[in-house]
Amino acid sequence: MRHRTYINTSFFLLLVALLVAPLAHAQQPNVILIYADDLGYGDLSCYGATKISTPHIDRLAAQGIRFTNGHSTSATCTPSRYALMTGEYPWRRPGTSILPGNAALIVPTDKATLPGVFKKAGYRTAIVGKWHLGLGDAIEKNWNSGITPGPNEVGFDYSFIFPATADRVPTVFMENHRVVGLDPADPIQVNYAAKVGSDPTGSENPELLKMKASPNHGHDNTIVNGIGRIGYMSGGKKARWTDEEVPLTFLQKAKDFIGENEKKPFFLFYSLTEPHVPRMPATVFKGKSDLGYRGDVILQLDWAVGEILKELEHLGISKNTLIVFTSDNGPVLDDGYEDGAVTQQNGHMPAVPLRGGKYSAFEGGTRVPWIVSWPGSIKPGKSDALVSQVDLLASFAALLRQPLAETDAPDSHDLMKALLGKTDRGRDVLVQQGGALAVVKDNWKYIEPNKGPSYNKLTGIELGNAAEPQLYDLSKDIGEQRNLAARHPDKVQELARLLKEIKEAGRSR
Ligand code: NG6
Ligand code: CA
User: Fold this and answer.
1) Buried b (16+ CB within 10 A) or exposed e, 261-281
2) How far is the CA of 505 from the centre of ligand 1 (A)?
3) How many CB atoms lie within 10 A of CB 310?
4) CA-nearest residue, atom 11 of ligand 1
5) Ligand 1 neighbours by CB, cut-off 6 Å
6) Which pLDDT score is estimated for 215?
7) 35 has which bridge partners?
8) Among 172, 107, 163, 106, which Cα is nearest to 130's?
9) This model's pTM is above 0.90
10) What pLDDT does residue 483 have?
11) H helices, E strands: number in the chain
């Protein structure tokens, strides 16, 4: 009798193992998150751009799902990246707006993070590219020794990054805590308050600039490679990057990581710098787009995506690799340099059909290209589901069966079914952050009244700020042209109350 029970139990366990084994394998794809910087909803041909052609990303879209209502949490970089990493709306956390290049790390080291979820599930994890979430535990830090905490302390086994943005010092790469190629005899100093060292600055020596800075944007501090930056640095001459090579370096490092880990499941956060300023394409891309350097670097970005796809095919791991492609915020033409983005716009509309762009509470600020591809496992198509980057953490935690603590990822929803195209239902409610906050529910969008300027004078972008409440019906008016607040006071009240509740609750998961 006992013997029979034993046989039955063993048989049952074997059956479960047989059933679960292939499933477990199928649920552990490699994941590559390709994250563009300032790429707009209208910047890709698969999203309707006609003045520029992006065949590689179009191929990704054709083999995957193209989302029409995918969002970054915010209309600028640092907050969007904070949310991506933590699953928390960034406006809950003071100190998450655009960071200077010497800021301290703002991602908590004791909470769940997106890469941490993969790591716990046994993945090898890496970030290659732009970071912009701070490094070390203070502004004062020694760039000439190991800096910690940083990406390696919040879930990445390997990091090859630049600290902030391409237009902010220090203009160096860092590999796992250390500046790459630093000569100890030429130490780096960084300062955002006052000039350090004797390097020329854009304000003192504009004749040395190879690309003019637009007036009043602040890109007139230390000149590196003929480009004025925000912030001052001295030293580290051999370690400073060459702008034309930055994306090529990142691409090679990304390919190296993929190649080294082809046999294990891996998570790669491939965080591109294009088309953020300063736009300085590699020589082969200069002049290729007829849209100035902004268009050229979009072609370069598209090419890099193609190179990644080619590498996956070459290694035979395309089918087992899930790719998410999206952008950290909406587009901007003149963000501080005279690079042809405005003078050679040639009819290219980077946010169309949306209103606003980077910095804006209008859809152009946060509705961004968003593609999910997993050849063989998801059916190609288009999805109108409302999805946000804040949701990637809980979604991948669900896919990988990693439980989250109550206090983790407080605003992240498991939308894996929507991301894999199994349902068209995404979020019910989403809070969006321009300067002002907005809330979207059932395609109704309410933008909180606020005192901010209606235009960003430097970039010419409409910010979505107004002293009166704004209400748009996105199902009929995706371009947010008709403010219906006066016609639907009940709706205004309902959404204002909802936003207040989400703020006060401190969480929305
Ligand atoms: C702004 C910069 C802009 C860009 C942006 C960061 C000025 C006037 N403008 O403050 O050039 O660097 O910060 O962009 O300084 S983001 O995509 O990283 O958020
Ligand atoms: Ca950005």
Assistant:
1) bbeebbbbbbbbbbbbbbbbb
2) 31
3) 13
4) 335
5) 37-38, 76-77, 98, 132, 165, 167, 217-218, 230, 276-277, 329, 335-336, 458
6) 85
7) 271, 326
8) 163
9) yes
10) 98
11) 10, 22
Q: Which of 124, 183, 130 is nearest to 155 (CA)?
A: 124
CA-80 nearest atom, ligand 1: 19
So where are the chain's domains?
28-183+237-423, 430-504
pLDDT (0 to 100) of residue 216 = 84
Distance of CA 454 to the CA centre of its chain: 25
Atom of ligand 1 nearest to the CA of 37: 17
- Residue 245 — φ and ψ, nearest 5°? -100, -10
Strand runs labelled E in 150-206 = 158-162, 174-175, 178-179, 189-191
Three-class DSSP category at 18? helix
Q: Whose CA is nearest to atom 18 of ligand 1?
A: 77
Tokens of 313: 């095919």
CA 230 – ligand 1 centroid, Å: 9
Task: Pick the residue whose CA is nearest to atom 13 on ligand 1.
Answer: 98
At residue 383, φ and ψ (nearest 5 deg) are -130, 135
185 Cβ partners below 8 Å, 6+ apart?
Answer: none
The Å distance, Cα 311 to ligand 1 centre, comes to 33
Residue 276 alpha carbon to ligand 1 centre in Å: 9
d(CA 301, CA 34): 10
pLDDT over 50 at 26, yes or no = no
Amino acid present at 43: D
Question: Which atom of ligand 1 is the closest one to the Cα of 130?
Answer: 18
Residues 374-389 as b or e (16 or more Cβ within 10 Å = b):
bbebbeeeebebbbbb
Q: What is the pLDDT of residues 415-438, one digit of tens each?
A: 999 999 999 999 999 999 999 999
Residue 7: how many CA atoms within 13 Å on its side-chain side? 4
Q: What number is the average pLDDT over the span 391-412?
A: 97
Take residue 322 and report the two structure tokens written for it: 């899930």
What is the CATH number that goes with domain 430-504? 3.30.1120.10
The amino acid sitting at 212 is K
233 C-alpha to center of ligand 2: Å? 22
Distance (angstroms) between ligand 1 centre and the Cα of 185 equals: 32
CA-to-CA distance for 230 and 191, rounded, in angstroms? 10
> In this predicted structure, what is the pLDDT of residue 69?
98
Give residue 100's region: left, alpha or beta (phi > 0; psi -120 to 50): beta
- In CATH terms, the superfamily for domain 28-183+237-423 is Alkaline Phosphatase, subunit A (3.40.720.10)
